[in-house]
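job 3f2a | input accepted
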Amino acid sequence: MLDRCGRHRPTAPSATTHENTADRLLTIADFHPVQSYLEVGVYAGGTFNAVNFPRKVAVDPNFMFDTRTAAGPGIDFHELRSDEYFTSPDHHERFDLIFLDGLHEFRQTLRDFINALDYSHAASVIVLDDVLPNDVFSALPDVSRAYRFRELNRPGNPDRSWHGDVYKVVLAIHDLFPRISYCTVNRGEGNPQTFCFRSPRRDFRPHFASLEQIERLSYFELLDHLDLLNPVSEDEAFQIVRAFSEHSASAR
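job 3f2a | predicted structure (252 res):
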């Protein structure tokens, strides 16, 4: 159990950094039993098709690959918006591991997270992708504007990264979900991602005045509140999830 988010300090990059999200998810599964997996925002299937669990569900409004080539027992593909999937009476089950990589926009990702909680159980782990922009352009929720403004200000810059304002979801979790603990893998150790799980935070204290204030935060204000993301090294993040998994197992 985490005493409070923000207690850990960023550390130097780990030698065991996983640049590939699938590797990171499979590492979690090495010490956290995963029989069922949900991925929201699948795109070309690079992550979804690289992980192997008995039950896998993919949700995306427009799969960019032939899902027939990846079909198999226990695998379902739902080509529809996440809101449609989560509100359908035909699609309700609880997953051990959930990966949220949909639209990189605060409101949508917050809805996906809230809905994912209803599709999780006491021992589930939810992974949020793209939670820490690498510059002010990457933090724009409109991808076309992010690319255009970066090119205007840094002509010829090959950087095509885009994270949107998903970081606000982590800040909303900090303030509005005191029974959810989390930690964020540092930027520079692969893609910045936040691991979330059900464990009450002691000494809970909201930081912001309202959800509206969180939604209005800029990239530069994020830099003033990086500690609220609870940034840790990748190894530390795995250790935290491992401790949660062991606690969950002993509580059963």
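job 3f2a | The chain has a mean pLDDT of 89.
job 3f2a | closed
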